[in-house]
Amino acid sequence: MIFIVCVKMSDLYFNKLNYTLANEDNQFEVDLCQKLDPKKLLLVCGSGGRSLPLVSPATETMVCADLAGPQLLLASLREACLRELNFDEYKLFWGFSPYTESAECEKRKKLFARLTLSAECSDFFTKLYEEISWQSLLYLGKWEKTFAKIAKIAQKILGPVHSRKLFEFNSLEEQRAYFRNEFPKWRWRLVLFIVGNATFFNKLLYKGSFVDKNIPDSHFSYYNKAYQHLFMTGLARENFFLQVSFLGRIIFEEGNPAEANAEVFERTKKWLLNHEVDYKQQDIIKLAKEGNERFDYVSLSDVPSYFSGDLEKSFVMDLRPSLNQGAHVVIRSYLRVPEYQINEDFENVSNEFQDLIDQEKTQMYKIDILRYRGEA
Question: Among 257, 285, 313, which residue terminates a domain?
């Protein structure tokens, strides 16, 4: 059983599908769970792509909860695909590279007809797919549509050569040399100046609920540092976030996220043969405080960045009734680092996993990993 929970930021923001691909790199948490091998997981849902692949050999329980009903339905659709499709069919259905939008619509419709879905899930996605003529859902979310617009701005300002050349390299040293000597940095800074601000994201994505920044860096500096780290530390063609930022979608198969990795797919599929995912439309903190189940791994995504007041201070301590001794809590902070309070029951062990944190493919998050040392 797996619980995936997401907290509502505003009614306007969570009224439809917000994420259909991912706004974060869950390979980091896939690798983390393989190291920790937790039995019971409590996770934020997102698109389902960030949560379902976190199973490890010891996993017994996964609970998925979210205040946004459509996100839970999307995770249910992913689960059905994992259960009933093979790996190539899964990539085709969702539109992961190398499968193209225009060529696969009829095949996608036939695959959908094979899936075992609840009446609510089937009705929701039948109507949605008919509306979009059976194109992929992968880039239909609000976040994905926003970054498609960012990619168009980047392509216009950088030009057709430089907006794509970054992805031609198979050598990191060659990519670094290109970035140092040829990449039009002033044009890229103009792109970040246009899109890297609260006004832009509020207009296109957050509808006035964009995170209230409390870090010292300006928005421009924050985004510039994150992207520069990505340019210099990993191949762009292997990074889904860079592809979405510059190209609007994943073109190069090496950049497919964890759910479209054959090993991760088969491990998740095998787990689902003998386990159920339990979806809860509920607040994650309330669930943790009032529920009767205890977990070994809790992943909050960047939800706490949107907390304020008493909740911002207490949310980690509020999790204690739901934690087994030795449990790990993963918190991502985006532009705002929540000022949470902890006592001697918790230890920040982020440094133990710094190698994984440094490899995260968006670098948009400060990541804290806490270990619970209190009694269960």
Answer: 257
CATH number of domain containing 306: 3.40.50.150
What is the Cα–Cα distance from 218 to 200, expressed in whole angstroms?
A: 15
Q: What is the pLDDT of residue 376?
A: 64
Contacts of 355 (CB under 8 A, 6+ apart): none
What average pLDDT does the structure give for the chain? 92
Residue 151: which domain range?
A: 142-257
* Count of domains observed in the chain: 2
pLDDT mean over 135-146: 94
- H helix runs in the chain, sequence order: 27-36, 69-84, 87-94, 105-114, 119-131, 142-165, 172-181, 185-195, 198-201, 219-233, 240-247, 262-272, 284-290, 309-318, 354-359
- Contact present, 255 and 237 (Cβ < 8 Å): yes
251 lies in a domain?
yes
Greatest distance between any 2 Cα atoms in the chain: 58
CA distance 253 to 100: 12
Tokens of 128: 């949605």
- Residue 263 sits in the same domain as residue 250: no
List, for residues 252-268, the tens digit of each pLDDT value. 999 999 999 999 999 99
- Which pLDDT value is given to residue 311? 95
Q: Which pLDDT value is given to residue 210?
A: 85
